[in-house]
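Need residues for this backbone.
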């Protein structure tokens, strides 16, 4: 607490520390021990010895200097305290240690303030430092000093790394849970999909020499003149990585628009590695929940598995998780994940078709 007597303000704080008095005195009267919880740069433990404390406040150093006025191990330590920026504002800090049978009652008194606001600021500061002292006295590390911008950044990054590791672990747990899903019965229909104006391929033929197949259901309504810009951004990325993906599984993009529109759009975007097919005049999109009751197209990715008994629709992921969540397939594009690393974040940005150059 802060009290006022004869025009001066005094800070008084007490803390009970679970350590013997001799140990606590070591922590407050040795520069090396103090550095574990405080900011001494000079500390000469004797009457008349010089003390100096340096505090890096957001890139600028604030220095307090003084002289030891009381040195009585293991009972009392006191020293004067004067900030370099205001050398005439002399105050005095005293630590009194009271033995309580294995633990220690530490009483701090900081006297001589003529400004109540400064006294209040110092009181908050001493509360912070004394808590750190108590932590070190218990044999633990006090952790980074949050008065330093660099230390705050380091602490924030360490906390972020902890969360990122937990996120990685959780993603792996979810992936394992996904792989453990029971395989559904084989599909009853082997859908016919247009590969060109005069060529039709069956769903079962899309696996090639693999037993697993990715299908990205691209939003392209038959009446539209261009595909969904968000879906197109996704497929831009898929086109680059498909040679790698196809080491494990086949990959195709299927849209509802006629095959001519789809192939023209693929040429415009430069999709030269992805196979594009049309589900026009079929129930494929509707059956696999890539189309709503009104015929609107939905962003979905499906995973199929081929077995001796037929083709199984193993898993499906939609951008729409539920009525309040629409980021179900964000992990499938590097764009959002790159934006998430920026100080500005992804914001409310949506993809567009206007800024993507037409492939030649």
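Answer:
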């Amino acid at each position: 607490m802060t009290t006022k007597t004869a025009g001066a303000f005094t800070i008084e704080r007490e803390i009970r520390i679970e350590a013997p008095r001799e140990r606590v005195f070591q922590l407050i009267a040795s520069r090396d021990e103090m550095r574990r919880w405080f900011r001494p740069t000079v500390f000469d433990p004797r009457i008349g010895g010089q003390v100096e404390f340096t505090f890096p406040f957001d890139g600028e150093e604030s220095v307090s200097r003084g002289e030891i006025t009381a040195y009585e191990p293991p009972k009392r330590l006191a020293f004067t305290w004067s900030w370099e920026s205001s050398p005439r504002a002399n105050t005095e800090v005293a630590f009194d240690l009271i033995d309580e049978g294995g633990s220690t009652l530490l009483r701090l008194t900081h006297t001589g303030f003529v400004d109540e606001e400064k006294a209040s600021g110092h009181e908050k500061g001493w509360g912070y430092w004394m808590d750190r002292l108590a932590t070190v006295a218990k044999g633990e590390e006090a952790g980074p000093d949050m008065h330093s911008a660099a230390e705050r950044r380091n602490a924030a990054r360490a906390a972020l790394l902890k969360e990122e590791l937990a996120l990685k672990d959780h993603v792996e747990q979810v992936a394992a849970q996904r792989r453990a899903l029971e395989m559904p019965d084989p599909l009853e229909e082997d859908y016919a999909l247009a590969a060109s104006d005069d060529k039709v391929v069956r769903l079962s033929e899309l696996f090639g020499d693999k037993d697993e197949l990715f299908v990205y259901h691209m939003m392209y309504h038959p009446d539209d003149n261009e595909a969904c810009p968000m879906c197109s951004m996704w497929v831009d990325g898929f086109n680059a990585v498909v040679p790698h993906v196809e080491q494990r599984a086949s990959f195709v993009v299927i849209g509802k628009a006629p095959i001519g529109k789809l192939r023209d759009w693929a040429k415009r975007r430069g999709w030269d590695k992805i196979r594009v097919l049309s589900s026009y005049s079929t129930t494929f999109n509707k059956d696999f929940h890539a189309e709503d009751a009104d015929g609107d197209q939905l962003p979905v990715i499906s995973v199929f598995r081929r077995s001796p008994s037929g083709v199984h629709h193993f898993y499906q992921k939609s951008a729409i998780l539920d009525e309040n969540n629409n980021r179900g397939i964000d992990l499938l594009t590097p764009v959002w994940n790159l934006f998430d690393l920026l100080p500005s974040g992804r914001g409310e940005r949506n993809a567009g078709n206007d800024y993507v150059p037409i492939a030649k």
